TrEMBL record:
SMART domains reported for this sequence: t_SNARE
Alphabetical list of SUPFAM superfamilies matching this protein: SNARE fusion complex
Name used for this protein in its record: BET1 homolog
Any one cellular-component term (Gene Ontology): Golgi apparatus
PROSITE patterns for this protein: T_SNARE (PS50192)
Organism: Cyprinodon variegatus
Coiled coil: none
Topology of this chain in the membrane: Single-pass type IV membrane protein; Single-pass membrane protein
Record's keyword annotation contains Ribosomal protein: no
Signal peptide start and end residues: none
Subcellular location(s) per record: Endomembrane system; Endoplasmic reticulum membrane; Golgi apparatus, cis-Golgi network membrane
Assembly and binders: Interacts with SNARE complex members GOSR2, SEC22B and STX5. Interacts with LMAN1/ERGIC53. Interacts with STX17.
Function: Required for vesicular transport from the ER to the Golgi complex. Functions as a SNARE involved in the docking process of ER-derived vesicles with the cis-Golgi membrane.
Length: 112
């Protein structure tokens, strides 16, 4: 005598255990999903750490740029003071020196 749902039939149950083949397959799929979720979690943590590092680098670059801007502003102020006087030859040398320095820096950065 067979009871409905307990034999091996279309419902996929084993003998009288009540354990389904589908449940076993679901557990395997759940383990696969857990592994994938763990990998995604690790990846998002790594991305977050990289974003924080990049933001810190950008902030450092901004502060370096600000200090360079202050130095450049002071230099331009000195050049303006020189231009007020009649020292045009000295001003010309100063501008040529500035162009030379910028050219050397540009060349150095381009080769790097």
């Amino acid at each position: 005598m067979r009871r409905a749902g307990l034999g091996e039939g279309s419902s996929g149950h084993y003998g009288g255990s009540g354990y389904s083949v589908y449940e076993d397959e679901n557990e395997q799929l759940q383990e696969g999903l857990r592994a994938k979720v763990g990998a995604l979690k690790s990846l998002t943590i790594d991305i977050g750490a990289e974003v924080k590092y990049q933001n810190k680098m950008l902030e450092d670059m901004d502060s370096d740029f600000d200090s360079t801007g202050g130095l450049l502003g002071a230099t331009i102020g000195r050049v303006k003071r020189l231009s007020r006087g009649s020292q045009t030859k000295l001003l010309c040398y100063m501008l040529l020196f500035c162009f030379f320095v910028f050219f050397v820096l540009y060349w150095y950065i381009k080769l790097r």
